[in-house]
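User: Predict the full complex structure for these chains.
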Amino acid sequence: MSESGAAEPEEDAGRRLANEARERVHFEEEALGLADQVYRVARRMVGTREEAEELVQDTYARAFRSWKSFTPGTNMRAWLLRILTNLNTDRGRKIQRTPDQQPLEESDYYLANRLAAVEGEQALDQQQVVERLSQGGVVNALADLPHDFRDVVVLVDLGEFSYADAAQILDIPIGTVMSRLHRGRRILKKTLAEETLT
Amino acid sequence: MSDADCEKCEELLQGYLDRDLTPAEVKVAEGHLGGCDYCRRRYHFEAHLRRFIRTSASERMPAGLLAKLAELRGPTAEL
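Assistant: Here is the predicted structure of the two-chain assembly.
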Protein backbone atom coordinates (compact mmCIF):
# COMPACT_ATOMS: atom_id res chain seq x y z
CA MET A 1 0.00 0.00 0.00
CA SER A 2 1.30 3.47 -0.87
CA GLU A 3 0.13 6.61 0.86
CA SER A 4 -0.71 8.54 -2.33
CA GLY A 5 -4.50 8.59 -2.24
CA ALA A 6 -6.55 8.77 -5.48
CA ALA A 7 -4.21 7.02 -7.95
CA GLU A 8 -3.89 3.93 -5.78
CA PRO A 9 -7.13 2.03 -6.46
CA GLU A 10 -6.53 2.26 -10.18
CA GLU A 11 -2.99 0.99 -9.73
CA ASP A 12 -4.31 -1.86 -7.60
CA ALA A 13 -6.83 -2.74 -10.24
CA GLY A 14 -4.10 -2.68 -12.88
CA ARG A 15 -1.90 -4.92 -10.81
CA ARG A 16 -4.76 -7.29 -10.16
CA LEU A 17 -5.53 -7.54 -13.87
CA ALA A 18 -1.89 -8.10 -14.70
CA ASN A 19 -1.70 -10.85 -12.08
CA GLU A 20 -4.81 -12.44 -13.40
CA ALA A 21 -3.48 -12.36 -16.95
CA ARG A 22 -0.26 -13.99 -15.78
CA GLU A 23 -2.22 -16.68 -13.96
CA ARG A 24 -4.30 -17.32 -17.04
CA VAL A 25 -1.26 -17.64 -19.28
CA HIS A 26 0.30 -19.99 -16.76
CA PHE A 27 -2.89 -22.06 -16.68
CA GLU A 28 -3.07 -22.21 -20.48
CA GLU A 29 0.52 -23.32 -20.78
CA GLU A 30 0.12 -26.05 -18.21
CA ALA A 31 -3.06 -27.26 -19.93
CA LEU A 32 -1.39 -27.31 -23.36
CA GLY A 33 1.46 -29.31 -21.86
CA LEU A 34 -1.07 -32.04 -21.02
CA ALA A 35 -2.69 -32.13 -24.47
CA ASP A 36 -0.98 -35.30 -25.66
CA GLN A 37 -1.97 -37.20 -22.51
CA VAL A 38 -5.54 -35.91 -22.77
CA TYR A 39 -5.70 -36.92 -26.43
CA ARG A 40 -4.48 -40.47 -25.74
CA VAL A 41 -7.36 -41.04 -23.34
CA ALA A 42 -9.88 -39.28 -25.60
CA ARG A 43 -8.82 -41.36 -28.59
CA ARG A 44 -9.90 -44.60 -26.94
CA MET A 45 -13.18 -43.18 -25.66
CA VAL A 46 -14.50 -42.41 -29.13
CA GLY A 47 -14.56 -44.25 -32.44
CA THR A 48 -12.39 -42.17 -34.74
CA ARG A 49 -9.36 -39.90 -34.71
CA GLU A 50 -11.49 -37.02 -36.03
CA GLU A 51 -13.97 -37.36 -33.18
CA ALA A 52 -11.12 -37.47 -30.68
CA GLU A 53 -9.57 -34.31 -32.11
CA GLU A 54 -12.89 -32.53 -32.03
CA LEU A 55 -13.58 -33.64 -28.49
CA VAL A 56 -10.17 -32.45 -27.29
CA GLN A 57 -10.68 -29.09 -29.04
CA ASP A 58 -14.10 -28.64 -27.43
CA THR A 59 -12.55 -29.58 -24.10
CA TYR A 60 -9.80 -26.98 -24.38
CA ALA A 61 -12.21 -24.31 -25.60
CA ARG A 62 -14.32 -24.86 -22.49
CA ALA A 63 -11.28 -25.17 -20.20
CA PHE A 64 -9.83 -21.87 -21.43
CA ARG A 65 -13.19 -20.15 -20.91
CA SER A 66 -13.65 -21.47 -17.40
CA TRP A 67 -10.05 -21.53 -16.23
CA LYS A 68 -10.97 -19.68 -13.05
CA SER A 69 -12.92 -22.66 -11.78
CA PHE A 70 -9.73 -24.74 -11.70
CA THR A 71 -8.15 -24.84 -8.24
CA PRO A 72 -4.38 -24.36 -8.60
CA GLY A 73 -2.41 -27.19 -7.07
CA THR A 74 -5.04 -29.83 -7.85
CA ASN A 75 -4.80 -32.41 -10.64
CA MET A 76 -5.26 -30.49 -13.90
CA ARG A 77 -5.20 -33.60 -16.08
CA ALA A 78 -8.13 -35.02 -14.10
CA TRP A 79 -9.91 -31.65 -14.31
CA LEU A 80 -9.54 -31.57 -18.10
CA LEU A 81 -10.75 -35.14 -18.44
CA ARG A 82 -13.77 -34.38 -16.31
CA ILE A 83 -14.72 -31.70 -18.85
CA LEU A 84 -13.97 -34.10 -21.67
CA THR A 85 -16.08 -36.97 -20.35
CA ASN A 86 -18.96 -34.58 -19.66
CA LEU A 87 -18.82 -33.28 -23.21
CA ASN A 88 -18.58 -36.79 -24.55
CA THR A 89 -21.62 -37.86 -22.56
CA ASP A 90 -23.61 -34.78 -23.66
CA ARG A 91 -22.95 -35.16 -27.34
CA GLY A 92 -21.94 -38.56 -28.34
CA ARG A 93 -23.68 -41.24 -26.43
CA LYS A 94 -26.68 -41.50 -28.68
CA ILE A 95 -24.63 -42.00 -31.80
CA GLN A 96 -22.15 -44.47 -30.36
CA ARG A 97 -22.66 -47.89 -31.70
CA THR A 98 -22.19 -49.92 -28.56
CA PRO A 99 -25.54 -50.80 -27.08
CA ASP A 100 -25.76 -51.14 -23.33
CA GLN A 101 -25.89 -54.89 -23.32
CA GLN A 102 -24.00 -56.62 -20.56
CA PRO A 103 -21.62 -59.11 -22.14
CA LEU A 104 -20.79 -62.21 -20.20
CA GLU A 105 -17.37 -62.23 -18.69
CA GLU A 106 -15.13 -65.13 -17.77
CA SER A 107 -12.83 -65.42 -14.78
CA ASP A 108 -9.78 -63.20 -14.28
CA TYR A 109 -7.48 -66.03 -15.35
CA TYR A 110 -9.45 -66.88 -18.50
CA LEU A 111 -7.07 -65.41 -21.08
CA ALA A 112 -4.00 -66.75 -19.26
CA ASN A 113 -5.56 -70.21 -19.12
CA ARG A 114 -6.42 -70.12 -22.81
CA LEU A 115 -2.88 -69.07 -23.72
CA ALA A 116 -1.41 -71.69 -21.42
CA ALA A 117 -3.49 -74.34 -23.19
CA VAL A 118 -1.97 -73.29 -26.52
CA GLU A 119 1.55 -72.28 -25.58
CA GLY A 120 2.18 -74.31 -22.46
CA GLU A 121 2.25 -73.30 -18.79
CA GLN A 122 5.91 -72.13 -18.88
CA ALA A 123 5.17 -69.59 -21.61
CA LEU A 124 3.05 -67.48 -19.25
CA ASP A 125 6.19 -66.32 -17.48
CA GLN A 126 7.56 -64.74 -20.61
CA GLN A 127 6.98 -61.26 -21.87
CA GLN A 128 6.66 -62.56 -25.45
CA VAL A 129 3.50 -64.50 -24.80
CA VAL A 130 1.40 -61.32 -24.82
CA GLU A 131 2.73 -60.63 -28.29
CA ARG A 132 0.54 -63.46 -29.57
CA LEU A 133 -2.19 -60.89 -29.12
CA SER A 134 -2.22 -58.18 -31.75
CA GLN A 135 -2.11 -54.49 -30.98
CA GLY A 136 -5.06 -53.98 -33.29
CA GLY A 137 -6.90 -56.68 -31.37
CA VAL A 138 -6.45 -54.68 -28.17
CA VAL A 139 -7.79 -51.53 -29.83
CA ASN A 140 -10.82 -53.42 -31.18
CA ALA A 141 -11.49 -55.17 -27.91
CA LEU A 142 -11.48 -51.83 -26.10
CA ALA A 143 -13.79 -50.32 -28.69
CA ASP A 144 -16.19 -53.24 -28.24
CA LEU A 145 -16.56 -52.68 -24.51
CA PRO A 146 -19.84 -51.07 -23.49
CA HIS A 147 -18.96 -47.43 -22.86
CA ASP A 148 -19.54 -47.45 -19.11
CA PHE A 149 -16.90 -50.13 -18.75
CA ARG A 150 -14.65 -48.68 -21.41
CA ASP A 151 -14.46 -45.23 -19.83
CA VAL A 152 -13.25 -46.70 -16.55
CA VAL A 153 -10.79 -49.13 -18.15
CA VAL A 154 -9.38 -46.36 -20.36
CA LEU A 155 -8.97 -43.92 -17.46
CA VAL A 156 -7.31 -46.42 -15.13
CA ASP A 157 -5.39 -48.72 -17.46
CA LEU A 158 -4.37 -46.20 -20.11
CA GLY A 159 -4.58 -42.89 -18.31
CA GLU A 160 -3.14 -44.42 -15.15
CA PHE A 161 -5.60 -42.58 -12.95
CA SER A 162 -6.31 -43.81 -9.44
CA TYR A 163 -9.73 -45.26 -8.63
CA ALA A 164 -10.46 -42.04 -6.73
CA ASP A 165 -9.55 -39.80 -9.66
CA ALA A 166 -11.58 -41.93 -12.07
CA ALA A 167 -14.56 -41.69 -9.69
CA GLN A 168 -14.27 -37.92 -9.65
CA ILE A 169 -13.82 -37.60 -13.40
CA LEU A 170 -16.87 -39.75 -14.14
CA ASP A 171 -18.86 -38.51 -11.15
CA ILE A 172 -19.63 -42.01 -9.92
CA PRO A 173 -18.90 -43.73 -6.59
CA ILE A 174 -15.52 -45.38 -6.17
CA GLY A 175 -17.18 -48.77 -5.64
CA THR A 176 -18.77 -48.42 -9.08
CA VAL A 177 -15.37 -47.61 -10.57
CA MET A 178 -13.96 -50.78 -9.05
CA SER A 179 -16.75 -53.06 -10.18
CA ARG A 180 -16.83 -51.62 -13.72
CA LEU A 181 -13.06 -51.85 -13.92
CA HIS A 182 -12.94 -55.46 -12.83
CA ARG A 183 -15.80 -56.49 -15.07
CA GLY A 184 -14.50 -54.43 -17.99
CA ARG A 185 -11.08 -56.03 -17.77
CA ARG A 186 -12.62 -59.51 -17.74
CA ILE A 187 -14.77 -58.73 -20.77
CA LEU A 188 -11.70 -57.32 -22.52
CA LYS A 189 -9.71 -60.47 -21.83
CA LYS A 190 -12.52 -62.67 -23.04
CA THR A 191 -12.72 -60.68 -26.28
CA LEU A 192 -8.95 -60.89 -26.72
CA ALA A 193 -9.04 -64.65 -26.21
CA GLU A 194 -11.82 -65.02 -28.76
CA GLU A 195 -10.23 -62.72 -31.33
CA THR A 196 -6.75 -64.08 -31.05
CA LEU A 197 -7.00 -67.72 -30.12
CA THR A 198 -9.85 -69.15 -32.11
CA MET B 1 -1.60 -75.25 -1.95
CA SER B 2 -5.30 -75.87 -2.31
CA ASP B 3 -7.63 -74.78 -5.09
CA ALA B 4 -9.30 -72.51 -2.59
CA ASP B 5 -5.98 -70.70 -2.08
CA CYS B 6 -5.63 -70.19 -5.84
CA GLU B 7 -9.18 -68.93 -6.07
CA LYS B 8 -8.49 -66.46 -3.29
CA CYS B 9 -5.31 -65.39 -5.06
CA GLU B 10 -7.15 -64.90 -8.35
CA GLU B 11 -9.63 -62.72 -6.53
CA LEU B 12 -6.87 -60.57 -5.00
CA LEU B 13 -4.59 -60.35 -8.02
CA GLN B 14 -6.13 -57.37 -9.84
CA GLY B 15 -6.19 -55.36 -6.63
CA TYR B 16 -2.61 -56.44 -5.96
CA LEU B 17 -1.53 -55.18 -9.39
CA ASP B 18 -3.46 -51.97 -8.76
CA ARG B 19 -1.76 -51.62 -5.35
CA ASP B 20 -5.16 -51.41 -3.82
CA LEU B 21 -5.06 -54.15 -1.19
CA THR B 22 -4.96 -53.79 2.56
CA PRO B 23 -1.66 -54.83 4.17
CA ALA B 24 -3.35 -58.03 5.37
CA GLU B 25 -4.51 -58.88 1.84
CA VAL B 26 -1.05 -58.11 0.42
CA LYS B 27 0.34 -60.64 2.89
CA VAL B 28 -2.14 -63.29 1.76
CA ALA B 29 -1.44 -62.62 -1.93
CA GLU B 30 2.35 -62.56 -1.57
CA GLY B 31 2.34 -65.59 0.71
CA HIS B 32 0.48 -67.53 -1.94
CA LEU B 33 2.42 -66.19 -4.96
CA GLY B 34 5.68 -67.15 -3.25
CA GLY B 35 4.72 -70.82 -3.21
CA CYS B 36 2.40 -71.36 -6.17
CA ASP B 37 3.83 -71.59 -9.71
CA TYR B 38 0.37 -71.65 -11.23
CA CYS B 39 -0.62 -68.26 -9.74
CA ARG B 40 2.84 -66.72 -10.00
CA ARG B 41 2.89 -67.36 -13.75
CA ARG B 42 -0.53 -65.77 -14.04
CA TYR B 43 0.62 -62.81 -12.01
CA HIS B 44 3.53 -62.27 -14.44
CA PHE B 45 1.20 -62.71 -17.37
CA GLU B 46 -1.28 -60.15 -16.03
CA ALA B 47 1.51 -57.64 -15.44
CA HIS B 48 2.81 -58.12 -19.00
CA LEU B 49 -0.69 -57.95 -20.40
CA ARG B 50 -1.37 -54.62 -18.74
CA ARG B 51 1.78 -53.12 -20.20
CA PHE B 52 0.90 -54.53 -23.62
CA ILE B 53 -2.61 -53.09 -23.47
CA ARG B 54 -1.32 -49.69 -22.42
CA THR B 55 1.26 -49.45 -25.18
CA SER B 56 -1.00 -50.99 -27.86
CA ALA B 57 -3.89 -48.65 -27.20
CA SER B 58 -1.89 -45.49 -26.74
CA GLU B 59 -1.92 -43.26 -29.81
CA ARG B 60 0.01 -40.03 -29.97
CA MET B 61 -1.73 -36.70 -30.57
CA PRO B 62 -1.87 -35.92 -34.32
CA ALA B 63 0.52 -33.28 -35.62
CA GLY B 64 -1.21 -29.95 -35.81
CA LEU B 65 -3.64 -30.49 -32.95
CA LEU B 66 -1.49 -28.63 -30.44
CA ALA B 67 -1.42 -25.56 -32.68
CA LYS B 68 -5.21 -25.70 -33.02
CA LEU B 69 -5.56 -25.89 -29.25
CA ALA B 70 -3.17 -22.97 -28.77
CA GLU B 71 -5.41 -20.86 -31.01
CA LEU B 72 -8.22 -21.36 -28.52
CA ARG B 73 -6.33 -19.45 -25.82
CA GLY B 74 -7.75 -16.25 -24.44
CA PRO B 75 -6.77 -12.87 -25.93
CA THR B 76 -3.16 -11.98 -25.25
CA ALA B 77 -3.16 -9.77 -22.20
CA GLU B 78 -1.08 -6.64 -21.68
CA LEU B 79 1.29 -7.76 -19.00
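Helices of chain B lie at 3-17, 23-35, 37-57, 65-70.
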